[in-house]
Each structure stands twice: as structure tokens, then as C-alpha cells.
Amino acid sequence: MTGVNPVTLRAWERRYGLIRPQRTPKGHRLYTERDIDRINQILVLLDRGIPISQARQVLDEGDGDAAATTAETTDPGEDTWSALLTRMRTGVTVYDEQALSECYEEACSLFAPSQVQHHLLAPLYRQFPPGGSADDQAARAFLHSWLRTVLSARMHHRCRRAAGPRVLLATTDSGADDIPLLLLGLQLIDHGFRTALLGCAVDTDALATAARQTGAESVLLWTGGDTGGTAGLNRLAGDVPVFVAGNTAPLQGHAERFTLVDGEDTGAAVRALDTHYNQRQSA
Questions:
Q1: Rounded to whole angstroms, what are the CA distances from 49 to 23, 38, 70?
Q2: How many domains are there within the chain?
Q3: Which of 179, 190, 271, 279 has the fewest CB neighbours in a 10 Å radius?
Q4: pTM value?
Q5: 14 shares a domain with 106
């Protein structure tokens, strides 16, 4: 109902005293509507960057704006993230899904989702690049399967809160990796965009159809360098603003109507969309 896993809820209850669910005679937890409202309030605070350790005080005092300002300058430190990342990497190399999930849930119970994604999930993904030995490839496949499940579930629960411009997210690359799309989609949702994820190897004609049918206000393509040429992109950009991010080097000098995003990190793509819509609103 809230998208928060049971392990995290128990941590919020036992460690931080944030919720106090009732118990059945057999010891099962019962969450009332008031508990669910409280959980949703906590999720809002986490989305704003307020650490879980400050959430109870903020809820009691009702001063979320001040706490958010403080949280922006509060960093748990590289040692904390490094320790969590090491644990998760070890979980990947020994194919231990339970260890991976427990570490992830621990991080989510302590930090905002956007922090967990930026400091933990994205770096973990980058530590297992394509190629390498058979062991490396197997570990990468295992990690991708786990990430796909976790990120898809998080996107499903978080997309209901977004109310901004609708963005279609896809890649035209054949055989592309969909994990960057999921990471990028969550970042867009964190910035208020309503995101429709079309996936990999989507041709420009299909994107044009989807844009018309969904009323999308822009299309964001993530590319590894194989876009299938620029003619289709330029045609698509005649219908809706198109942004292309990732490895855009092969497209340099050929973007007649679409926008190339500088930088190969997902954050650059999100900033480009933020700038586009901020300028449009102020025009």
C-alpha cells in the first residue's frame, strides 16, 4: 500500500519510534489508517532529503522546510557509503540476493531514496561493466536482475506522486542495457516529472505514436551510441521536444531539431529537462 518493505517498517518502529502499529494476539502487526498516513508523511520527508534520524523531530515540530535546508548540508560521509557499497559488492560476487536486499533496505531506512540511488545503486552498477571474465559477466547478470526488480518496484510506487510534465523515456539502441533507463526514470520522478518508460530498441515511429497517445510533452532518449541514424530523430523532434543523452558523440553535428545533452551521467539529462521547463515557464 505504501511501497515500504517490512524490514524498513520494523527499523522505523524499533530504532526510531516513528510508528507504533497494533498487534494481533499472534503478534502480527496491524497498521491503521493513521499509521499509513504517518508512513506517507515520512516518505515525503525522505524525498525532500531529510534523514530518517531527523524525521520524528520534524513530524513532532512540523518544521519540514527548516529540516530540509539542514539536510541539504548534511552528508553521512564517504566512509558510510563506502562500507555499504562494499557489502553490496560482496553480495553480488557471491550471488547472495538476501544480503543485497538487506543492505539496500538498511540504507533505505536511514537515508532518502535519492541519496541511496546516487551514492549506492548507481556506483554499484558502474562497478560491473560489460565484458571481463565469465565470472564477471555472470555477476553482472545477477546484479542486473536484482536491480531491475528493485528499481521497477520503486518506480511503480513513486510514480503516483509525480504531477509534472509527462516524459517518454526510451532508447533506440538494439541490445541496450535497461538499468540506466530505470535509474534515469527514478531521477525524473524525484524531480516531479511523470515518466513513461518504453524500454529498449524502440524505433522513432513507435515513439512518435506513443507521444501522441500519451500527450507526452517531451521525449528523452538514452543512447550507448547506436541510434540508427538521425533522420528519425529529427522527424520525431518535429512533433515533440527530443533530448538525447548518454554517449552522444556519434550525433555531434547532426542534431538539426533535437537537443544533445552534454555529459554521460544521468544527472546531466535530468538537469537539461529541468532547465528546459524552467525556461518555458518563465518565457
A1: 31, 17, 9
A2: 3
A3: 279
A4: 0.72
A5: no
